[in-house]
Amino acid sequence: MSQVYVFTQFGGPETENLIDRPVPQPGPGELAVEVRAAGVTPADWKTRSGRYGTDQPLPLPMGHELSGVITAIGADADGFAVGDEILGLAAPGHGAFAEHTIVLAVDAVAKPEEISFTDAATIPVTAAAAYDATHQVELEPGQTLLILGAGGGVGLMAAQIGRVHEFTVIGIASESKRAVVESAGATFIPAGGDVAARVRREAPAGVDLIVDLVGGDALHEVADLVTDPTRIISAADPATAIELGGAGLRRTPEAMAKITSVIEYGLVDPHVSALYALERAGEAIAAVENGHVTGKVVLQMLHTAAS
Ligand SMILES: NC(=O)c1ccc[n+]([C@@H]2O[C@H](COP(=O)([O-])OP(=O)(O)OC[C@H]3O[C@@H](n4cnc5c(N)ncnc54)[C@H](OP(=O)(O)O)[C@@H]3O)[C@@H](O)[C@H]2O)c1
């Protein structure tokens, strides 16, 4: 048997639970993976809340992004071998917050030796989303990227990618995140109050792209700063971005491999700020659901043979 963290009712965290299940076996196109680490994302609690629908069978395993070691390979899962270290997305219904899970071969990338399992687990959802958010609209070096929610997992990665491309990066976050946002190469602007006026003082001609990781009123407050409203890209609140003339984040299949290379070469860092054991998954999810984490929260699975 193998442990997996699930919820048994859509809604609040009360029905989250660590349960045993048989070690999952791979079907066609699938990889069986011994999970070493899993990134905690807002999508975990949003899925549990029912925001993405309530038609999946319960109990539903939690977690989306992970790293681990392949233990078995299904038919037609080309390009991988047993023992390979990978990062990838948990296959639907299998969960990343688990000792063992299933990953579709098309949703997996070889983990470079240079990247730890912990950092690799932040790539499939979070770093890949930051890559897409900073490439959906192409900017030129020297143009200005404004990141709303710059201190979280996607925001810190997006800021660093922006600096790799030599954009001028302005990051809005709470005061407690000033140092980490500045360490990512961004000019820090504290959230709240007259935030738009503070950004305007930094960028009198406006900004060339807004990457939004917060949405709602906070996005409304800064939207006028962008020179062209089609250059508002929101990962957090596509409806508000569209209302303002922008767009929701479009995910691409290439992003996972591309940002893996950027991390491998040490150009950016996933900023893992907190590690939890699988037994404490509930606390880790609650920390992210609280909405004010710095960087990434990651679960580490302790296997007897783990390196
Ligand atoms: N579509 C996709 O594929 C995709 C993929 C990844 C993420 N997302 C979405 O993108 C959003 C961000 O994800 P994430 O992983 O970066 O979340 P996260 O790690 O929880 O970070 C969110 C950040 O926003 C900050 N924040 C909250 N209110 C703010 C405000 N008014 N002004 C400035 N900052 C504020 C929070 O901290 P402080 O308030 O303390 O500054 C926190 O650091 C989520 O909605 C997530 O669901 C979508």
Overview of the structural elements:
With 307 residues, this protein is α/β, with parallel strands linked by helices. 27% of the residues lie in helices and 28% in strands. It has helices at 42-49, 117-120, 123-133, 153-164, 178-183, 195-202, 216-223, 238-243, 255-264, 281-289, and strands at residues 2-7, 16-21, 30-40, 60-61, 65-73, 85-90, 100-110, 144-148, 168-173, 187-190, 209-212, 232-234, 247-248, 272-277, 296-300. Strands 3, 5, 6, 7, 14 and 15 form a 6-stranded mixed β-sheet that branches. Strand 1 and strand 2 form a beta hairpin. The chain binds NADP nicotinamide-adenine-dinucleotide phosphate (NAP). NADP nicotinamide-adenine-dinucleotide phosphate is lined by residues 41-43, 125-126, 129, 148-149, 151-155, 172-174, 177, 191, 213-214, 218, 235-236, 249, 251, 288, 291-293.
Q: List the secondary-structure elements in sequence, H or E.
A: EEEHEEEEHHEHEHEHEHEHEHEHE
Report the end-to-end length measured between terminal Cα atoms: 21 Å
* Whole-number count of domains: 2
Ligands: NADP nicotinamide-adenine-dinucleotide phosphate
Specify the CATH class of the largest domain: Alpha Beta
What is the CATH superfamily of the largest domain? Answer: Medium-chain alcohol dehydrogenases, catalytic domain
Instruction: Please identify the structural class as seen in this structure.
Output: alpha/beta
| Helicity level | 25-40%
Q: What is the helix tally?
A: 10
* Strand segment count: 15
Radius of gyration (CA) equals: 19 Å
Shape: globular
Q: Tell me the major beta sheet.
A: 6 strands, mixed
